[in-house]
Known about the structure:
Elements: E1 5-6, H1 27-40, E2 45-47, E3 57-61, E4 76-98, E5 101-119, E6 125-131, H2 132-144, H3 156-170, E7 180-181
Parallel strand pairs: 1-7
Antiparallel strand pairs: 2-3, 3-4, 4-5, 5-6
Amino acid sequence: MKLPIYLYGQPVLREKTQDIPLDYPNLARLIEDMYETMYHAEGVGLAAPQVGLKDRIFVVDLTPLAKDDPSFDGFKKVFINAHIIEKDGEEKIVEEGCLSIPDVHEKVPRQNRIHIQYLDEQFNPHDEVYEGYKARVIQHEYEHLDGIMFVDHLSGIRKQMIRSKLNRIMNGQVDCSYKVKALKKK
């Protein structure tokens, strides 16, 4: 089922998430719905707060980008109760966007390497290191779990320059091909 994506301004996007217990009801359905929602919106990652949930889970699928980078082929993962242990490597500035902030793309600095621990959909533990674009996408989605959005990395002047766009998004003045839930209705 396609879920509505919560837009910038929704309080749930600024709240810290809670760990998912082993007996979380309908977890498989939630994961399936998150992937379906993400694919419909043409995204490569989606975190639970973006669909209105305060649960510590996000999904990533870079497979659609495999024609540009073959290492992305089959890179489809569920991250449950994830915790980034370390960020290091060269800081890279790359343009990012977000399904919760449609039509806004800004250059964001991020470390090029991360060490992350998480559980998969079967609650198997993983302790992994990612670099490059994989690390960037994971950091972007991970930050949603702590109430952080990519625009929080922008300078004060840059935030002022996009303030009117962000206000329109909060007011539901967006044209998206996917279902959204704005703070205020148009």
